[in-house]
Amino acid sequence: MSEVIRSAFRKILDTNPQLYFHLQQQRLIELIRNGKVEEALEFAQEELAPRGEENQGFLQELERTVALLAFEDVTNCPVGELLDISQRLKTASEVNADILTSQSHEKDPKLPSLLKMLVWVQNQLDEKATYPRITDLSTAALEDPAS
Q: Where would I find the CTLH domain in this sequence (predicted)?
């Protein structure tokens, strides 16, 4: 995944070492998840260890990630949450936010804010007018004001 992003968004990765590290960390996590222990160790030494030497925060994250290798049952280890889907989503959200920011878009999607505004406007209109009200936001089902 990071190679595709790297080629398309080289500038983002070159200017954001934390994002690049997190993508590489996620790659290491996936190697560990797939039981590729030797490949994971080699990858950690070649790709991540040099970055850990430059940044204490990266080193701590790397140590936590490599700690997964010390446990046979990673589901009960202190850093097992790194293998949860939430870790993948966290990395993906970070990538998405940086891509949107680099393209001068907002980090957060506008749809949730627009839906909240729609509900507020409908609540205001309920007191003043009869109109085709949206009753289900997921389908945009309208309620006929005549019924």
A: 3-39
